[in-house]
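Observation: inputs received (chain + FE2/S2 (inorganic) cluster).
Thought: call the complex predictor directly.
Action: predict_structure
Action Input:
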Amino acid sequence: MDNTLDLAAIQTALEKSSAKVEALINSYVDKKEQLISLLQDIQAEFDYLPQETLVKISRTLDIPLSQVFSVATFFQSFSLKPRGRHTITVCLGTACHVKGGQRLVDKISRDYKIGPGETTQDERFTLETANCLGCCALGPVVVVDGKYEGHMTPDKLDKILKKYE
Ligand code: FES
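Observation:
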């Protein structure tokens, strides 16, 4: 297998992506009130919100940078850091907490060296916590890439996460 980097191809891809973002931001010049929608579009492009893009939004749409950041950090669905290929969400709502949710977070933190909101160095997993996922009877609940897993235990979680390695 050829492992050499095709720098020209990477450069072209970056330029295309940058031009796309520029066009996206410009398309919202007359719709500043739809900032959330613009941020969703940007996140769909990169899978997170690069900080330089937030600065570009602020300058182009003439919205204070503090306002752009406060919207970007208010909603849990937005991420300011690159995310892993798989997202693990551990519920720490009251029902899941009393049934051992925190033990699951501790196990992931120990095994993968990441805390809530962080991504493993190999970009495999991003760990998130939630306050209640609306299925308390199944607690403790863990969601991996949108798949709900109930009555979770550290051993069960170990087996599930191994499948994503
Ligand atoms: S507290 Fe975890 S699903 Fe409700």
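Thought: report the result.
Final Answer: The mean pLDDT is 89. Residues 93 and 134 are 9 Å apart (CA to CA).
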